[in-house]
Amino acid sequence: LNRRACTAEPLDLARIRRQCDAALARFLDGKSQDLPGSTRTIDIAGVLRDYVLAGGKRIRPVVCVVGWHAAGGCGDPQPVLRAAAGLELFHAFALIHDDIMDSSDTRRGSPSAHRLLAALHAARPDSERLGTNTAILLGDLALVWSDEMLHTAGLTHRQLGDALPLLDAMRTEVVTGQYLDLLSGGQPSPDLDHTMTVIRHKTAKYTVERPLQLGAALAGADPDLLGTCSAYAVPLGEAFQLRDDLLGVFGDPHVTGKPVLDDLREGKATPLMALAVRRATAGQLRLLHELVGAADLDEHGAAEIRGVLEDTGARDTIEHMIDVRYRRSLDALAHAAFPDPAAEALRRIAASATGRTA
Amino acid sequence: LNRRACTAEPLDLARIRRQCDAALARFLDGKSQDLPGSTRTIDIAGVLRDYVLAGGKRIRPVVCVVGWHAAGGCGDPQPVLRAAAGLELFHAFALIHDDIMDSSDTRRGSPSAHRLLAALHAARPDSERLGTNTAILLGDLALVWSDEMLHTAGLTHRQLGDALPLLDAMRTEVVTGQYLDLLSGGQPSPDLDHTMTVIRHKTAKYTVERPLQLGAALAGADPDLLGTCSAYAVPLGEAFQLRDDLLGVFGDPHVTGKPVLDDLREGKATPLMALAVRRATAGQLRLLHELVGAADLDEHGAAEIRGVLEDTGARDTIEHMIDVRYRRSLDALAHAAFPDPAAEALRRIAASATGRTA
Prior knowledge:
The structure is a homodimer.
Chain A (H helix, E strand, L loop, with lengths): L12 H22 L9 H10 L5 H12 L7 H25 L3 E2 L2 E2 L1 H8 L6 H25 L5 H28 L7 H27 L4 H28 L2 H4 L5 H5 L4 H9 L2 H10 L7 H13 L2 H22 L4 H16 L3
Antiparallel strand pairs in A: 1-2
């Protein structure tokens, strides 16, 4: 028996996305006005606003709002939209600090935050260092303000009390996942289990499970329902990241907005690479050790690596793993008692997150 | 008419400090056990525990607990102690990121977090970079966990609802204060107003006002009482930072735990330096421009700078400014309706924060 939905209308995900963007713009515009100005400073709240609104799929806020509908959420959606939008500020925090740690120059086809800030302080002799330092602070602000958006969303005490433990768990998962990821870069490794652990912590829980649970909790979901959310979300989150890893190597940079050599130059430890290393011949392994993680890797070298990822069947296996997880996720959804509009939206989200080209 | 105190006993500040340390140790030991281990990782919760407990005066947690008593707080102090201890984790976040931005090698007489982490990863070829990157994450964790300590302190919904806006304000103040500070380093500047703005944001509100208000809010303080807290705390916080600036230049490094050349080499923009620049003769100004902010400044150069700070009367003026603020703070206290044990503790805190040698 399905929970009753407030509406039988399909959920308009593009509209939810626009509403979250509007909430973010309102919040950050307010911060621009509140902060102490100085002739020496730039409007960092404005910088964060432009950074956040310039791109991104808003998958976390959208999943959160759908989670609220899935758990039978009714009434004024504004507090939930604002709390959901706060997840995007948390994501901005993670991206900004991640790009500093990886020394990435671009994000979503635009300059990364530390590059952007270095350019804004270009008149100063220490602009490079200032770019990195102010980006650390910009990330800190994004984290702090993601909380403030939640705290000031107009939620009841009860809703806030239900939300905080989920967010606390999510934040520890993301940061410790980043830590595991940081320590596994460099040389290609055959440690498939380790890369799957990183994926689970850094992405699977954070991108789908926790946002969905957060939305459901805001509608008063009980532990059973939160478990149902996980059954759908964890395999989907893994599939999402496996697709992301494929796009990082085989994707079209004009579509992904991410230079296709970055992941390979960084020597990012992915299940894709771990599988290739496990199956490589001695010659292929030599090639991987030589090229993966090389800072000066060129397009020719990347083509050679791609050849190994295909010839070892690693790429096909990852496609298969995505497919298995996608089906597991849909299967969980079929057994969930979500209202039809929410279930239908979650099916669409699963299809686009696993089959996406960007 | 004074508010009724639960007890007429004097508050034992050293005991409060020990109780906060015990709460921190319990929380972080729990995190050490919860986090996913790996042969590649080190116990970062344990690293944070050792870092936090190695030193520090715990002024923020102590002030917070005294604030609770000042507002007539009664009953089980444990939730308040745990929430107060969370302020120390927030402080660890601020210090860790600050030391990365300043490239400081030491903190409280021990290695700074990024140096500590670089040493722990010394076996890896990229240990320097890994030290900085993992320190960014360690700071992020400290921030995230400071919240979690508060959320799980056992406060009522009402208490939490009263605490969050104060903490949100504090966190924005600290990060934007850091930002102002970052942009003002380098060359000595005569801009006294600017340095006082930085002090107010970065330290005065954060070190005394917000912790005191937080404690008072946890005891149900009304806006009037929170205003009384500010009247005591803002001048005291300014005096505290002015003393800190003096110690950074004239203090004994064996007592402060801070190399006495760091502030001068960094070219830290302080009211002390701004006053000296405003009053300097042409010759003194040349000397300041040449030596302040020079990365290779030696003890001889530092002695020359100290001479200018004294000869211009800048040092004496700062001592006078500390004294004025100390008296203003005590005056506010005399007019506050705090219970005697709390008022007496706040008098002791004011004396030690403005006259301290470390």
